[in-house]
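Appendix B. Extra example for self-study. Work through it before the problem class; the solution is given directly after the inputs so you can check yourself.
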Amino acid sequence: MKVSLFVTCLVDMFQANVGKDMVEVLERFGCELTFPQGQVCCGQPAYNSGYVEESKAAMKNMIQTFEEAEYVVTPSGSCATMFKEYPRIFKGDSEWEPRAEKLAGKTYEFTEFLVEVLQVEATGAKLEGKATYHPSCHMTRLLGVKDAPMKLLNEVEGLELITLPNAHNCCGFGGTFSVKMGPISEQMVDEKVASAELTGADYLIGADCGCLMNIKGRMERKGKPVRVMHIAEVLNSR
Amino acid sequence: MAMKFSTEDFKERIKENIGDDFMRKAVAGAQERLHTRRLDAAEELGNWEEWRSHGEEIRQHVLENLDYYLHQLSENVASRGGHVFFAKTGEEASRYIKEVIQKKEGKKVVKSKSMVTEEIHLNACLEEAGCEVIETDLGEYILQVDDHDPPSHIVAPALHKNKEQIRDVFAQKLDYDRTSKPEELAMHAREMLRKEFLTADIGITGCNFAIAETGSVTLVTNEGNARLVSALPKTQITVMGMERIVPSFEEFEVLVSLLTRSAVGQKLTSYVTALTGPQGEGDVDGPEDFHLVIVDNGRSRILGTEFQSVLQCIRCAACVNVCPVYRHIGGHSYGSIYSGPIGAVLSPLLGGYDDFKELPYASTLCAACTDACPVKIPLHELLHKHRQVIVEKEGRAPVSEKLAMKAFGLGAASNPLYQMGSKVASTVMKPLTKNDRISKGPGPLKAWTELREFPAPEKERFRDWFTHHQKEKGDGKS
Ligand code: SF4
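Solution. Structure tokens for the complete assembly:
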């Protein structure tokens, strides 16, 4: 199966290991991978701040970059959601709407792709310890991917999963919200950190790089021992 | 604008409220209780998504045909002997109500819960005219006794107060000397209110839904006070927002099912009352005189715009009860009587961006509100729309942000620019990096690193690693 990786700007620049783990997992299941070099950012930071026109150039770049792809797979629920939003954003634009439609139709979040397309749940991963999972907002509510991560995590050997209290509450990232509304974001992420601690878990797992960067950054600042992991890292542990 | 109750800066309000531990405990507790109850109630009903779609259709249909239903409602109220007044503004509505009361030489007014009367600042207007106005909804009563503390929640206005605080308020203002048990507090309030009901000459109610086909107004409560407000005084005035209409009792049933389940997780509230005009021949109770005041106050301006769906709202507060931002800052931070996600969408529309331009940014766009809304208002999309309007039409965004976003637009769209920037990032950031982290960032990173660590840029970007990786694999194959 031919898969084009959309790794997101965060992974490309700051969390390359997440990308590498995703590559190794996908290759293990026989995917033939490419990385279209033209990719930059899905446009979400500017778009969510209300700069719709400014963000369109970034979106068009992405549409062009992935035009030839068969499947587009990304390790970020929120960025996948953004691709799915493109048709709505370009609605009425006779040139770009159909092209956006095509991209949205072939885009998958990483865990969704494993479970729905590759039909894989047991990845053969092994990780000893207790873990709790934070379901990120865009991925669960807008993209509608809720079960796939749990199916995959349930199959990880040695991993004990504990439910995160108030898991449905946002971690306080929200892109520019995290810096624009610092005092509110701080309260939100602190509650998330406290909930994770309450479970006694060794690992907090998520499937969205932005949210994880937020939670991890706060944990590190406060010197918390919980290790924050992207689900690709977990699935590539052995 | 009367919706606004604070002149303090948004940032100040947030700071103050975040420091209020009592409020935060009360809010978090209520959110958690209501969360499970709402989900259980939805599940018990079954086919929740279908019910939601049906609710949405009804509300959309009404909004699309609002003039028709307003006309029908007015005709039917009038044909049963009631008076209808259509108020373009809040002032007009308050003035009309005051005049009705003055004509009746009314002195004492009892009120049941109504957000729209808060919106139009009715109490202050009537008090200025020399009337005594008494709130009879328990939550509203507590706030009134506490020197008109503003409501912090559209369904449970005194949510920010715990029972000890309420006991203190009662002790201070009403010489209350019993415990902080909710039943005792409620009993005391009831005793105080009973006297007022019997001596009031005017009753003012809100309206959950008006029924166009019959000219009825309906009230959904758990305390039954609205019944007394509408049954005892000789004159009844009902105030409603112009969009709160349903075609007939059939649609009413659907919306009440959605409302009570979403608001409090109940199949039905204790009282659902429908009132049709003044007391008719053979009726044992009811007012002699009935007035329906329909308030526009900026609503018709929203019709036909990209924000129209906000008028579908049935004021259940489900969006408020799931909002993770509201959870931490409470209702008073919004500075509007409408708080939470619905407040952040509605307040700038009714009250203007001057007073409420920060509210659309007080959201992570997490969409918990959209998910919870029983009539499927895309709240997070409307919050985003506001941001777009603020940036593109109102031109109110800070210059520094505009420049940054322009730069983003260029950088994110142009691969060569990004390639160059991301390649040198690791080197540029090196002096700031310790243990692969940045703890004190410059410029745009400053706000981030005030709270959290920021990861150091990778020395080898993913894309460079991948190129090598592909090459190695290729070499391995050959
Ligand atoms: S916006 Fe929806 S969820 Fe919020 S109060 Fe209105 S109807 Fe309820």
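Self-check: DSSP finds 13 helices and eight strands in chain A. If your reasoning did not lead you there, revisit section 3.
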